[in-house]
Amino acid sequence: MGSNQTWITEVILLGFQVDPKLDVFLFGFFLLSYSLTLVENGLILGLICLDSRLHTPMYFFLSNLAIIDMSFASSIVPKMLANLIMQTKTISFAPCVLQTFLYLALAATECMSLIVMSYDRYVAICHPLHYAVIMSWRVCTILAATCWTFSFLLALVHITLVLRLPFCGPQKNNHFLCQILSVLKLACADTRLNQIVLFVASVFILVGPLCLVLVSYWRILFAILRIQSREGRRKAFSTCSSHLCVVGLFFGSAIVMYMAPKSSYSQEQRKILSLFYSLFNPMLNPLIYSLRNTEVMGAQRRFLGKRSSL
Fold first, then answer.
1. Torsion angle, CA of 267/268/273/274, rounded to 10 degrees?
2. Which residues lie closer than 8 Å to 103 by C-beta, 6 or more apart?
3. How many whole angstroms separate alpha carbon 151 and alpha carbon 155?
4. Helix crossing, 77-85 with 22-50: angle to 10°?
């Protein structure tokens, strides 16, 4: 860095540049969405822990997804809510970098977890006789741990490349969070290496796995059509369609955010996409799984029945 350059100590998050009178409405709306995210995912997690009938690989991965969603939203929303009601919408540089790291790590963890959940459904429907052997608890634990470890290491690579850059301004970040693309705009140096690594990682994390998911579900579809029982086909379709909805929402928004040309979407549109990706998606996931899942609804009825009998 040159002698006339200084390292910025804090970042101004411009957030949603709307009429200040709307800040109170946005605060209430986002607080409600965040509360629902915590309650819904916490309920899913609690039901899976308390009901022994849900102690299967499928619900083990669903509980893992609930933990990821709660962590994902919690790494972003509290600071966003604070900035909506505070006059100075700033964040220190170190917490900003930490938020970037957690955002990348948890997003990658959710991506990898959705892939593992697709594999679990593939084995359950296409190889039901070998399901217990292939998806043993040891294998499930290793797969879940691998998702977390790999994702955090990948995020660490991105953050290491970010911290090698000199950050001398601009100090204003036209976003409501420290998302990596907006953070790179604060650097006063060439960020082409960061952009290339981010694009390659996006292809590796998003496009490749999405192709595998689609191929696996193509084979699952043919396996379901061969099921003789109507009830068996209905149950298989219900489980797989729920997962496909979650996969479509997550991968679709992530691919548009990280792989679409910059000129295709305005900054405000990218903010809305980021908001959907980081807040509304974690809120919708438990609704999609629970409303279309008879086993989860049955566990909820059994739990409420026990509570009413006390």
1. 70
2. 72, 75, 76, 177, 178, 179, 180, 278
3. 6
4. 160
196/161 Cα distance (integer angstroms) = 11
Residue corresponding to tokens 């797969």: 143
**pLDDT in 10s for each residue of the chain, 310 residues:** 444 445 778 888 887 777 777 888 888 999 999 999 999 899 889 888 888 888 889 889 999 999 999 999 999 999 888 888 876 788 888 899 999 999 999 999 998 998 898 899 889 888 888 999 999 999 999 999 999 999 999 999 999 999 988 888 668 888 888 888 888 888 888 889 999 998 888 888 888 888 888 888 888 887 777 777 776 677 667 667 777 777 877 787 777 777 666 655 566 777 877 888 788 888 888 887 776 666 776 766 776 666 555 5
Q: How many CA atoms lie within 13 A of 145 on its CB side?
A: 6
